[in-house]
Design brief:
Elements (H helix, E strand, L loop, with lengths): L27 E4 L3 E6 L2 E6 L7 E2 L1 E5 L6 E3 L3 E4 L11 E11 L2 E9 L9 E3 L2 E2 L8 E9 L11 E6 L3 H13 L1 H4 L1 E7 L3 H17 L7 E2 L3 H6 L5 E4 L7 H9 L3 E4 L7 H14 L4 E2 L7 H10 L7 E9 L13 H4 L2 H4 L1 H12 L5 E9 L29 H5 L8 H5 L21 E8 L4 E7 L9 E7 L3 E5 L4 E6 L4 E6 L12 H13 L8 H19 L5 E2 L4 E2 L1
Helix pairs in contact: 1-3, 1-13, 5-6, 6-14, 10-14
Amino acid sequence: MPATTPAPTPGATITPDQDHARAPTHGAGTGTGPNTGLDAGTTAGATTGPNTRQGIGTATGTVAGADTEPGAGTTAATTTGLNTQPGAGTSARTTTGPGSELGIGATTGAAIGTNTASNTPTTTGATTGPDNGPRTGRDTGTGTTTGQGTETDQAPIGVAIIGAGERGVYYVGSRMAELAAETGFRIVSVHDRLPERARLAAAHLDALYAGAGVGHTVGVAPDLTAAVTDPAVQMVLVTTHTNAHLEPVRAAVRAGKRVYLDKPISVSLADARAIVAAEAEGGAPIMMGFTRRYERPWIDAIALSRTGATGTPRMVLLRSVIPYTRYLQLWHRTNAASGGAINDKGSHHFDVLNWVAGPGARAVSVTAMGGRSSIFAPDPDAPARCSECDRACPYRRHETLIDVAEGVGRVPNDSWLDATDPADRNDNCVYLPGSDIDDHAVVTVQYDSGLVACLFFTIFGPYAEDQETLEIIGESGRLRMERHSGEIDLVSGHGAERRVIPAGADNRDSSHFGADLELVRTMRRFIAGEAPPAGVRDGLASLELVEAARRSMAANGRAVDPRNQEFL
């Protein structure tokens, strides 16, 4: 295990819109593990098996295995198995194992098997097998990557953001502005039911575009209709409160726009099914923002579980001990608005369980115990918000270790400070009466394939590096992925072999450990016609598990069929 990283200092300011530029590095190393690469380069070589590439510039070689290598430039390393090498620099490598690459540039080489490369502008070579876009698979060979390459600006893609809160603007929108030259995304307007919040959000995004050297100004749409019908807009991001997702999704679909919908899909199954129906009505897929689908350690762990390294997955444990007391301090504090922490955070986790189970498996039984602990018992004498409180408190908003570590060590803009409605503030006291959400649960899901999965979930507890882990057990092995470090601990061959695989992506210091940057890049490919990693049917399947778990908890753990929400 790596040495423990010192906890951030309370009170330190880390803005949610950090600019994470790549610094050039040079290195040579040897590693073992799935290797996925963002290589800036032109690729030439022989490939066997399905290969996915994303990179800009020049690369030469033959690749063997699942190869993940974020880096622009030239690197030298020899790898067997699953290898991850972040870094911009110099590299020549030999790789064996299951691997993923994504690349934009010129590619030459011979490919045998199912080889997929998203390479622009030039591809030459002999190919045997279907060649149909980016994906993760098996490759065989050795390779050398050389040079920084040349970035080609994408054609502008106009975007409207509906909901100018932290997720829409200070995470996804900010990453869009930072990657504007690479992706072509131009945020045309933001709309929010709070006009001042929208105005300040637009100013924030203007500054990021300027910092990226892109001359662009973001507008403020006066209403939803104006935002989604603007002819300059091709894509609509829906990042409103969860209970308000349906209307903007319908409006955007009916206006003929492509849609990104942040998770969870909704607070009710009725609205979720209506969103699925709207997708069918529009005839184009809707992309869902389950961030773990875009986060390298999760991608590699689940891909590895399908290689036979552990045998067929039989049991899964997803452990989430993240002190997200912010759920009691933001609009999420009521089930009516958010569905609670078990929906907002748990929707990620249930999607992961379904992802591990695979597309052919269906959840058939859910049992759950949990609810609201006494830790946050209402205190009518406490000040209503942190900014008005002088008590010694470990939950003070923007000063907790988790807030500082995740880049929310300050209020995004004054609209949160000036708000009087608890739904519009982000520093409500954790003891403020009126919150009805659960704060912990242990949920067991049985699939028709025989897989049994367990979610161990809480929003209280300590800030620690093992805050979120995924463990998959098969008949001959097990893997344990730790999100914070990005490491995968793999035991295979009935215990005969053990490997610790570094799977963290480049730019892990960016939001969601770099997943939001990958999400934005995936959006660009989504606009170009690529199917999204997760869609609204995945959102509905996750919400079915959320609702079944809530129903089971209310009935003291009685089993619920998530397909119809009836007790078994």
